[in-house]
Specification:
The chain is an alpha+beta fold. It has three domains: 201 residues, Histidine kinase-like ATPase, C-terminal domain (Heat Shock Protein 90, 2-Layer Sandwich), CATH 3.30.565; 161 residues, Ribosomal Protein S5, domain 2 (2-Layer Sandwich); 167 residues, Rossmann fold, CATH 3.40.50.670. The chain is built from 20 helices and 24 strands. The strands form five sheets. The chain has an eight-stranded mixed sheet with strand order 5-4-3-6-2-1-7-8. Strand 7 and strand 8 form a beta hairpin. The structure holds ligand 28F. Ligand 28F binds next to helix 3, strand 2, helix 4 and strand 6.
């Protein structure tokens, strides 16, 4: 008896120490305490529902954002087990919410979550970082409830009624002393749940935002799985094969699901996932997929005399031009590498994916010769274009063998030639460009005003991009080439700063430039050289106090609370052009005061997606774009 009590005590202490560690260093467990980390809490809970769905017991998940930023998540799975552990006197359910699963998803030296597919893991982290959590379980004919505050149990699991259903419901309120904001972004959550629904065939996910008078709502359920994902990504593009190709194999250790469709676009859009996590940096699964594509199409082209014996093989890039694909694998013990820990390292996965795709795709091509022919025509044309571009480049190189790097006429360059300390501001509009030129620090800050017509990056090959009047100056100013020729070591500025208005036009130019960098200078984004300048939205003036600049509506509110609303004049800046050079320097360009947002690969991918919608031929998606766009502006403000 004594012994049991002793063990119980020791166990509890361990639990509290574990969750205290999470509260002390939340970033170690959820990445950050910004809005991203806040959203992560929701994903952790939803992940547990998805695991229950993958186990074959849950068909629907309901997520609600309740007034006051309370999150509610409910599934119709088996319900978390309620049995009491004989030694610890703690129910399995309470254990899931109070014991940090150090050896599971967490741990390793990064401390970041690295794998999905483990039940209940992550719930204790959400508990530790919430002001309160309440869990309701329906199971074994009963309705059970337990409650927590800041990770500590305040009400042990208690039977509060009967139920003939099963499932788990969790409500929580995140801890405002830990997170920078508690204000969830509905669209961000909606996007992620759509993605999860695509990745989990047949699972119904609904989300509802009840914070405002007119609730927002969405429901996702895709019987087509990744097929539906590819249809969604291509909805505005002209297709080469009318139906996405779909391959699925679940034998042994690594279940693989792949869908692909060719479009007339000149870009490749391949998305890859491991355990429902978007592997932005790719990895072995993607390598296997790419190798399979190259092999299958070259083999087919040779055996059907589309390329002759003396011809060279088609290159990977020729085969991926215009390709939209999603690759999803489930891996038991995934090793994540790379800067953002989104690159799969498990070497055996490459071979598994490759062999499944080689088998499935070669069979498909044999059975669908007209599709095979259409795709290969596109590949051959891409390879010819690549050859022609290479020859043209060599000719140009020979002609100006000294490689006189001309700088664009409108560029006001800085005097320093040390790229590490240099910045180039890309500014839309001549008036803003003028203010920026006068306001800047001439030694380290260069200004490039943009003009000219927007180009559809999607519908142009590299040569056309190079000669576009809007993009050419950007390429010349940065000075490191584009596409396969891009050399990050040659960049003339360590920071490339997009400075645009906080309106829809500004969002257009941001979207265009981000898409362009994503497509043609990807390492620039990957290595963190691209930034968005944040001009203020308001200037607050009052007699006797210094003018205050506010960058968001919340900041304006806070400021007005502080100084009172009487005798205050508020100037709303509609554009950069309204600021004089001194103001622009002080608020947006002075390294001591300015706010920069570093662009991530995720931002760039999002921009690319939005761009496709914007450039689509249909009218309806454009209207959607305006709405999405508003959100994009908002998101990047964070
Ligand atoms: C709204 C959040 O968390 N759903 C969950 C289950 C189901 C099981 C489970 C969860 C067993 C031993 C850990 C049920 N029956 N929704 C959720 N549904 N966790 S979380 O098991 C947890 C593990 O310790 C479950 C049989 N096996 C598993």
């Amino acid at each position: 008896m004594e012994k049991v009590e002793h063990e119980y005590g020791a166990n509890q202490i361990q639990v509290l120490e574990g969750l205290e560690a999470v509260r002390k260093r939340p970033g170690m467990y959820i990445g950050s305490v910004s809005i991203r980390g806040l959203h992560h809490l929701v994903y952790e809970i939803v992940d547990n529902c998805v695991d229950e769905a993958l186990a074959g017991y849950c068909t629907a998940i309901e997520i609600k954002i309740e007034p006051g930023n309370i999150i509610s998540v409910e599934d119709n799975g088996r319900g978390i087990p309620i049995d009491i552990h004989p030694k610890t006197h703690i129910s399995a359910a309470e254990t899931v919410y109070t014991v940090l699963h150090a050896g599971g998803k967490f741990g390793g030296d990064s401390g970041y979550k690295v794998s999905g597919g483990l039940h209940g893991v992550g719930a204790s982290v959400v508990n530790a970082l919430s002001e309160w959590v309440e869990v309701t379980i329906q199971r074994d004919g009963g309705l059970y409830e337990m409650k927590f505050e800041r990770g500590k149990t305040t009400e042990k699991l208690t039977r509060i009624g009967d139920s003939n259903k099963t499932g788990t419901k969790v409500r929580f309120f995140a801890d405002g002393t830990i997170f920078e904001t508690l204000n969830y972004d509905y669209e961000t959550l909606e996007d992620r749940f759509r993605e999860i629904a695509f990745l989990t065939k047949g699972l119904k996910i609904s989300i509802e935002d009840l914070r405002e008078e007119t609730p927002k709502k969405a429901e996702f359920c895709y019987e087509g799985g990744l097929r539906s994902f590819v249809e969604f990504l291509n909805k505005n593009k002209e297709k080469i094969n009318p139906e996405p190709i779909y391959l699925e194999k679940d034998n042994g250790d690594v279940p693989v699901e792949v869908s692909l469709q060719y479009t007339t676009s000149y870009n490749e859009s391949i998305y890859s996932f491991v355990n429902n996590i978007n592997t932005i940096e790719g990895g072995t699964h993607l390598e296997g997929f790419r190798r399979a594509l190259t092999k299958v199409f070259n083999d087919y082209a040779r055996s059907h005399s589309i390329i002759k014996e003396k011809d060279a093989n088609l290159q990977g890039e020729d085969i991926r031009e215009g390709l939209t694909a999603v690759v999803s694998v489930k891996v038991k013990d995934p090793q994540f590498e790379g800067q953002t820990k989104t690159k799969l390292g498990n070497s055996n996965v490459a071979g598994v994916v490759q062999s499944i795709v080689v088998d499935g795709l070669s069979t498909y091509l044999e059975e669908n010769p007209s599709v095979a022919k259409a795709i290969l025509e596109k590949c051959v044309s891409a390879s010819r274009a690549r050859e022609a571009a290479r020859k043209a480049r060599e000719l140009v190189r020979k002609k100006n063998s000294l490689e006189v790097t001309t700088l664009p006429g409108k560029l006001a360059d800085c005097s320093s030639k040390n790229a590490d300390e240099c910045e180039v501001y890309i500014v839309e509009g001549d008036s803003a460009g003028g203010s920026a030129k006068q306001g800047r620090d001439r030694r380290t800050q260069a200004i490039l005003p943009l003009w000219g017509k927007m180009l559809n990056v999607e519908k142009s090959r590299a040569d056309k991009i190079y000669n576009n009047d809007k993009l050419k100056p950007v390429i010349q100013a940065i000075g490191a080439g584009i596409g396969a020729d891009f050399d990050i070591n040659k960049i003339r500025y360590g920071k490339v700063v997009i400075m645009a208005d906080a309106d829809v036009d500004g969002a257009h130019i941001r979207t265009l430039l981000l898409t362009f960098f994503f497509r043609y200078m990807r390492p620039l984004i990957e290595q963190g050289h691209v930034f968005l300048a944040q001009p203020p939205l308001y200037k607050v003036s009052k007699k006797g106090i210094k003018d205050v600049y506010c960058y968001t509506d919340e900041e304006l509110d806070t400021e007005l609370e502080k100084i009172g609303r009487d005798n205050v004049s508020i100037q709303r800046y509609k554009g950069l052009g309204e600021m004089n050079p001194e103001q622009l320097w002080e608020t947006t360009m002075d390294p001591a005061n300015r706010i920069f947002v570093r662009v991530t690969m995720e931002d760039a991918m999002k921009a690319d997606e939005i761009f496709n919608i914007l450039m689509g031929d249909e009218i309806e998606p454009r209207r959607e774009f305006i709405e999405q766009n508003a959100k994009f502006v908002k998101n990047l403000d964070i």
